[in-house]
Amino acid sequence: MTEAAPILVLALLAITFLQSGYDKIKDWKGNVEWLTGHFANTILAKQVPMALMTILVLEIIAGVLCVSGIIQLFIQQPVTKGLGYYGAIVSCLTLLCLLFGQRLAKDYDGARTIVIYFIPAVLAVFLLS
Predict the structure, then answer these.
(1) Rounded to the nearest 5°, which phi and psi values hold at 45?
(2) pLDDT, tens digit only, all 129 positions of the chain
(3) What is the pTM of this model?
(4) Which range marks the domain in which residue 75 is found?
(5) How far apart are CA 106 and CA 123, in angstroms?
(6) Sign (positive or negative) of CA dihedral 118, 100, 58, 79
(7) Number of domains forming the structure of the chain
(8) Does residue 58 contact residue 94 with C-beta atoms inside 8 Å?
């Protein structure tokens, strides 16, 4: 299997974003309440539900594209700039949005955690480009 590295990184991203999206759907109210407090002193204070919906949509798109990319890598090899590539790009954009929010909220530990996810997302872009 020559595509093991991209498949593993895409699996990491798919699990991360699909689980996160599922959690947002399952506990929408709890997420909105917590994030309203988290962003109380930022420009996002009155935008929390809309921002959360935007992140949710991005996460689901990223997760579905990453799963689709894994399937595509199994079915037709080699694939360049396939669905996994676009999944990795959307993953990076989603993580940048999350990083921006954490920095606005001055949650530097949270921002640091997002960077840990950003590294494999960029690696996936590199491996699939």
Answers:
(1) -50, -40
(2) 578 999 999 999 999 999 999 999 999 999 999 999 999 999 999 999 999 999 999 999 999 999 999 999 988 866 667 999 999 999 999 999 999 999 999 999 999 999 999 999 999 999 998
(3) 0.93
(4) 4-128
(5) 27
(6) negative
(7) 1
(8) yes
